[in-house]
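Q&A log
Question type: sequence-to-structure
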Amino acid sequence: MSRFLIRRVFGALVILLIISAITFGLFYAIPRDPAMMSCGKNCTPDMLAQIRHNLGIDHPIPVQYWDWLKGVFVGRDYGSFGNCNAPCLGYSFANREPVLGTILDRLPTTLSLAFGAAIVFLIFGVGAGMLAAVKQGKFLDKFASSASLFGSSLQIYFVGYIAMFFFVAKLGLFAQPSYTPLSEDPVSWFSGLLLPWLTLAIIFTANYTRMTRSQLVEQLSEDYVRTARAKGLSRANVFFRFAWRGAMGPIVTVFGIDLGTLIGGAIITESTFSIQGIGRLAVDSVNKSDLPMLLGVTVLSAGAIVFFNIIVDAVYALIDPRIRLA
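Response status: OK
Response body:
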């Protein structure tokens, strides 16, 4: 098991290195000059050169990337900006603050949004899919399938604005969406994120309902499940011990990808509800051409997806021992 995970971690580090190099090259090769944007109207060549030096963009792109990569492990001196301790993802062009510090400030908001929504859509999505599979062909199955098809066709920005108009502005059933640290006020934390959780969970619940149903229906028709039934095992024992375990693989895979993507930034959800998380930070960085911040958010998003894929691999190895020998 340990050798299996070591191989996965090493592969993940290589993937992150490649992603960071490609992303750095794409972002810093664009024709828009951030130094010119920061220099102002009364810009002189000396001022422009000094700003480029302070921003660390006065060298060729391969040298810039090497300096950035060294900063991640050993830190980096940004001249007039000051020293950036490791792990250093650079200084923001917009607010002149360390990129990692800004990301860490926004991360609790995104983590609260992502894990809260994940709990909701896992409970309702997987639960509805299990009921639909057990009641295959009956009213409950048809209703769950129809509802999931309808839910998956909705968009978060549409559902979010409609929900805020009716449930917040008109009826007052929910608090205005916002983020309050859990340690400061758990009640405000829960009430401020409840509507975004439910809205974000609508689309995911629909997808997990359909996926869980299809996987369980397929597993229930397998020969080994029929054999277990023929041997006299109870229906619940056959369902949870054999069929459910066989259906877990694809569900775990998709859940790992979805959770990693959400932690990387639920851009549309955070923008719809004006929640200042990682996704909203990415949008603001694009608008301000804040390349170091955008690079940091991109690397974080990729790292979250890669990390949860490693978790998925570990869970797969626990479910199916044959995978450990691969």
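Response note: The first strand starts at residue 76 and ends at 77.
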